[in-house]
Amino acid sequence: MRTLIGSGAVESLEAWHEADAIKVRVRLRSGVHVNSVTTGLLRYMFGGYLDPFTFTMQHTEVDFLEVEQSNPITARSGELELAIPAGRVARGMLWEYETMGTIVAPGLKVDLKGRPDVVVMLMRPPGPDARIVADKSRLTASSGDGWAFAGLESSPSGGLRIEVTSGGRGFSGVKVEVRRSVEWCPMYTTMLNEISQVEKIASFEPGSPGVVEWRPDYPVYEPFLAALSTQPSYDEILRLLDMMGIEARRDLFRMMIVLGRPHYVLADLKPVRTKLRVCMSRRLRRDVVDETELRLEGLE
């Protein structure tokens, strides 16, 4: 399996399959001492401009959504060997605005003495059998004399086939869109603690039926294991994004990361909140909306 070493505390990183797990061997550099190791489903959040004094990301937070094991380390051996479940998929979102990113993946966090901690994540994309499913099979938006229906069914490509019909009066069109959001750096005291995206799927004139097929566009990459610092440098994040098949580069002033497109979605799995909406647009009045939750299935 491919590996990425970003943290300066890590000397070598190995990974191999063993039954239903990925065995991980981390060798730390001389003089690096470990307080404890925690394994589970972790959330790695980063963003902000380049800190000109430390040359690291301005904001970074790491926590666990699920904890499998947390052990203090008494031995001063420079080598750790643990297991990570092999079947779980990395999920999350990236936003070009201030290079905001939330990545959730199975892994471990090594708490170090007197220096930034180390996070090891198993980055695995959704496989070819993954398919998007909706909680509802029919959406209805109506107001006064106007109405719009959308029938939803799975398509052979793993996406959704959306059939829209509408009729009546008092509305200017029908829109189909997907809205996503995920929490970002909740400890950071700002009004913007969320990455959000609106993906426009299709629009229709009043009374005009139509059919559209939609499938999420996730980055395509080979699975890999990443060992990152909890205070990552810009170069560390750039290397991570490159291994994930995400187009990214420094801006002209080398103070920000520019992505290939405004948003990237890794997978529509919790904690990413994904909804498909049918909106009946009305001039000078609030849209009438019906929506349903979306999620990925068929991941194992």
Structural Rg = 22 Å
Question: What is the straight-line distance between the termini?
Answer: 18 Å
Overall average residue pLDDT: 91
Q: Specify the number of helices.
A: 1
| E-strand count | 22
Percent of residues in beta strands? over 45%
Helix content: under 10%
Order of H and E elements: EEEEEEEEEEEEEEEEEHEEEEE
What's the story with the biggest beta sheet?
8 strands, mixed
The general outline is: elongated
Structural class: mainly beta
The unreliable regions are none
* Domain module tally: 2
Task: Outline the structure in words.
The protein is mainly beta. The protein folds into 2 domains: 2-126 and 218-259, no CATH class; 131-216 and 271-297, Immunoglobulin-like. The chain is built from 1 helix and 22 strands. Strands 1, 4, 5, 7, 8, 9, 17 and 20 form an 8-stranded mixed beta sheet that branches. It has a 5-stranded antiparallel beta sheet with strand order 10-22-21-14-15, with no helix packed on it. A hairpin with a 6-residue loop joins strand 4 and strand 5. The protein is elongated, with a radius of gyration of 22 Å. The mean pLDDT is 91.
